[in-house]
Every structure is written in C-alpha cells, then in structure tokens.
Amino acid sequence: DGVTEVLAHRSDSLRDKFIEIPCSEDYDRHRRFEGCTPRRCGRGVTDAVITREEAERIRRIAERGLSLGGSDGGASILDLHSGALSLGKHFVNLYRYFGDKIQDVFTEEDFALYRDVRQRIQQRIAQVFGISSSAMYLTKPTFFSRMNSTGAKTTHDEYWHPHVDKVTYGSFDYTSLLYLSDYTKDFGGGRFVFMDADSNKTVEPRAGRVSFFTSGSENLHRVEKVEWGTRFAITISFTCDPEHGIGDPAL
To answer: What are phi and psi of 214, to 5 degrees?
Structure first.
C-alpha cells in the first residue's frame, strides 16, 4: 500500500497546513480561465474555518435528509442542489418525491448555514491559491455523504476506488471536503488518502476540518473502507468555468 504519512491527525488542531505540488497537465485539456485555473497546485487542511459546533449543525441537516432514504449499500448521498437522494439501489429527487413535506425536514436557517459555510470554504481556497473568490463557481456534484461498513450493493456504493476529480468530473478545478464526524470516535477506517508515487498521505477526519486540493491528477486519492460506525462529510466543489456554475440550494 506504500508508506503512509499522516498529513493531519484527528487530535491536531491545524490553523493552516498547505503542501504545494506541481500541477498535472489535466488543466491544459480544458479551457483555461486566467486568475482562476490552477497555476499553483497542492493540498491543504484547516481546522480554523468551520467550528465543531457548526459542523454538528450541518451534520444534523445531513442526518435529517438521509433519514428519508439511504442506500442498501454502505454509501448514501444527499445533494441539496439537484435533490438527488440515495434510496435503496437507486436515487430519487427529494424535492419531487417529498414535495411540500420538505418544509418539515429543512428550514431556511439550514440553507443559510450551508451557504455561509460554503462561502467561507470558497474564500479560504481562493486565499491559499492566490486567486479571486469571485472567479470561482460552485459546481456539481456537491453533496453530503454518509458511509458505514455495510457491503456494497451497486457500483455507487464503491467509494474506495482511487480517482482524479478533474478526470471524473471535467468541471472540477478545486475540491473541498468538510468532515462532519470524528475518525476513531464515530467510525474506524474511512481516512482520506492522497496516493503519491512515493507514499500515501492521509487526512484523518475530524468534525469541522476542511481538506481542500486542486482537482487534477496531482491529487489522485481514495477513501479507505469504513470498518465500523458512520462517517459523515460534505464534498463542495468549485469550477473556474461559469458555464458549469450552479447556485446555492434554496427551499
């Protein structure tokens, strides 16, 4: 599996940790946007953007939404933008499926918190990579994930395969993950792994921790299988291409 180096332990409280790495050529295969498309690539971790209390409030939004459905396998997703919700072996559109009842599940405050958190993460990424926050657009898919040790029932449940976000989703330029639960306390396994040629670099999830990185092949990554407990996170993705931008979710 290669030597494993821990970039961020769960017990650490990191203001800002950033590791610069050379950019891959993935960005040259797409239209470049000056002042946004990565020229400086790398990966960062911070525990200073979102508080643990905010992470708990956001996790409760995820729990309420996912309680309406859930995958038969170990990985369930909830996308507040498109309405996609795992249900059994398929996905349903939460907004169409539940209609007005959705007002009983989510509040305006939930969506305001979600928006605020997204903006703060966007600003931090822009600051670290030396770009303008206004040149970045939220892109899809941006979603909550809930993972447990149940065996996979469909390919959607197989979250542990190594992948490159820019290759999987052409629009991604910057990817971020906000963790909503704690490694070794709420779940075992489930660490985030950057797979470098010489070694693996892992991030141990901690509620409120944000891990962010440029989306090209310089950041090939995977998530370890969850061995016990439940792991909650939210993936928030950004593009430099306004045509691939999406709005914040609204009730």
So the answer is: -70, 145
Annotation marks residue 43 as catalytic: no
- Cα distances from 142 to residues 8, 29, 132, 155, 190, in angstroms, run 23, 23, 21, 19, 19
CA atoms of 7 and 186, how far apart (whole Å)? 20
The CATH code of the domain at 4-242 is 2.60.120
**Integer Cα distance of 29 and 24 in angstroms:** 11
Instruction: Please state whether the predicted TM-score (pTM) of the whole model is above 0.85.
Output: yes
Cα separation, 208 vs 211, in Å, equals 10
CA distance 80 to 77: 10
Q: pLDDT value at position 25?
A: 96
- Residue type (1 letter), 151: G
| Residues 88-107 pLDDT 10s | 999 999 999 989 889 999 99
